[in-house]
Amino acid sequence: MEINKEFKKKFSEAPKKSQYLHSEDHVLADELSKKLNEPKRFGFYLKMAQKHDHRILRRIAGEVLEGNAKKPGALFAFLVKKEHSDPIK
To answer: Residue 84: pLDDT band by 50, 70, 90 thresholds?
Structure first.
């Protein structure tokens, strides 16, 4: 059975997933490390993604990116720590 050439072309042009991003935690860690301009700290962001709720991390990252911080990664880490140590919410 011959495969339609158009289908074959579309299938071959599909975006390829990275072999290293195999879980939601890895995808979030990759996203955070790139957006916060710290690609070498992927491990730190992976640990954060494994430990904390993804919605909270994305919200905090959005707040950090809206601001004009000199060190957005440090601010992000501070805000996550503050979020989880604050007894009054």
So the answer is: confident
Burial (CB < 10 A; 0-12, 13-18, 19+), residue 52, is: middle
Going by the DSSP 8-state scheme, the letter that residue 40 receives in this structure is G
Instruction: Show the domain range for 80.
Output: 21-85
Give per-residue pLDDT as tens, 61-77: 999 999 988 999 999 99
43 inside domain:
yes
Q: Please indicate, yes or no, if residue 1 is contained in any of the structural domains.
A: no
- Total structural domains in the chain? 1
